[in-house]
Amino acid sequence: MDDVAGIYARESSYLDRYVQLGIASGRVLSVSFPDSPDEEAIEDHDLLDRIADYLGGVEDDFSDAEVALTVPTTQRAVLERVRRVPYGDQITVETLARMTSGVDHTDEADLDAVRTALAENPAPLVIPDHRVRDGPSAAPPSVEQKLRSLEGL
Prior knowledge:
Elements (H helix, E strand, L loop, with lengths): L5 E7 L4 E8 L2 E6 L13 H10 L17 H10 L10 H7 L8 H12 L21 H10 L3
Helix pairs in contact: 2-4, 3-4
């Protein structure tokens, strides 16, 4: 991944909106899906190339993309676990809780913490919250549905 920091964006005809990345020190800070990009955004970035290929049907789990997670510990654990859900697979919030160290799948407060982590995911798609069938996604609903459809979920 490029080591240059900045905002990068490219239009996606599949999503009918832009994919925008915030990058610092070669790490993903954010992924968003605006209707129009930040006016400072640059179109050329290796990860945007990969995302374009993915949206065109090329399987990619983005597991090698470094993400800078500046979230509370429990949210970090949940989001790191979501990154290990394979392309084309889906799980439930309860299953995700079972798979996340320090989270009790029978405790409603812990399940709410899992949902919060998904809803506040700073890098949807790279951290594939769309693979959690009954959880919220940080991506807009139309984007979440298209990502799920792309992966056959």
